Task: structure prediction
Amino acid sequence: MNDANDLLSLCKRRGFIWPSFEMYGGVAGMFDYGPLGCVLKNNIVEVWRAIYKGREGFVEIDSETVNPREVFKASGHVDGFADLMTYCRACGSPFRADHLVKDHYENPDVLTPAELDESFARFGVTCPECGGQLGPVEEFNLMFKTNIGPGSDRVGYLRPETAQGIFVNFPNLYRYNREKMPLGVIQTGRGYRNEIAPRQGMIRMREFNMMEVELFVDPDDKDWPGFPGIEGEELVLVPNTGEETLTMTVGRAVEEGIIANRVLAYFIHTTKQLLVRLGVDPARLRFRQHLPDEMAHYAADCWDAEVLLSYGWTEITGIADRGCWDLSRHAQFSGTDLTHFRRFDEPREVETERVRARHKALGPAFKGRAKAVAAALEAVSPSEVRDGRLTVIADGEETVLTDEYFEVVKVTEKAAGERVVPHVIEPSHGLDRIFYSVLEHAYAHDAEKDYTVLRLRPEVAPVKLGVFPLMERDGLDDLARRIYGEVHDHRVEAYYDGSGTIGRRYARMDEIGTPWCVTVDYASVEDGPDRGTVTIRDRDTTEQRRIRIEDVRPVVEGLLEGRLDFASL
Result:
């Protein structure tokens, strides 16, 4: 296993990532992308975008990073988006409390503050920094709070995830898609979590990048057209039943009920395709199902794509069937219709339940608000009734009503269809974690030769081609610069280097993952501009071939697209 410090050192030295605000002492959990890092990150996004935008029914949006409090009240983040924190009484260092007892529990993040306090005493847990006594465990909300506009009347938060921007735009997206299901929406962007004590480099950051997918589906149709084409493909699964790691086909995992449904299984497999295409080692990739006490209460099923890093098995993508939780909550809190109209083949008589307001009781109790409360009541589904109570939002105010103010009645009516709340399948990709995983899985260091190679996939490598003159004289440099100018663009990024020995130049390119290098030598100019040839070198095999100068661009494009094989040049 590679040392993460060696890789991070390379990343800093070569311009992949830099610690943020380093001249002011830095801020834990924050990194800046350097020139090579920006290109690699953007290449990863473009592969992800190509996979999802290449499927019918997927569209892309870009929503705001600052959201009003109401959005996160509805989503549950205001009330429940917290980690449990403790601190050292001696040195003051803060710690995530559950991380301090991870060696003693299979899933420590479900422990209560009292249980964590008791565990510190039972297992003799002290401050990892100085050995001091730990303080009491308390909740710490991870969202960054701000105000929208002057004063403090409109409270907002930096979004801790990009998903809510998709959910609150559902009415617009539904109309855009001509009210058809399924509807897939993708979004890239930054999220913000005020982590208690971020460690492990890019694995836990306070400001991070996400590639989010929200697929809205009919709750009674969780099939997928492409499923028959992939059901024979294999996945490495860690189910939450306590069984050993299993290797099985996608189809069998659904048949045996290990994965909840076909559409979820299809996008678990799509996630594997994406990660392997980006350069994650399939031998170090698995999908772990959330434990029963780890699963969100509204989720039908949830799996994490985990990769084996120097930090151990690490989650880099989550794929969940979130049910109707998100749209139902936003419909309840905003009073907006977020349903899908499922059309029948022909009109039919249907019996359905509806909530009916008891106006005679509402009037005296709510006076001027009675009309708004009644409208809010009759807009909700009877399924929202809990123990004879119903929570509604009227005029922006949350009100809990007992059944003296409403009744649930059955009505029969002729209908062309019925309204249902779509369910959501969510593959959520941590871009920074994927970025780091791709680098670590590509990193190879020969200690004996003290030689480092990043075996990045050509598709994501920030520099595709190094262009060298053997010497920077006798016209070799002019020809090399001409080749560089003909090859270099936004798609095939090239790098001209005429400094140092050829061996050193190869080493510099190998260290940043450049798949091929072209060298202009004296034969290149002696043969004349029409018949001249250059040497092209392959990073992974170090083999070299002679190709014509005029073929450099088409050869590199062919290698990138997989139409050409280096060995056949």
Summary: The mean pLDDT is 93.
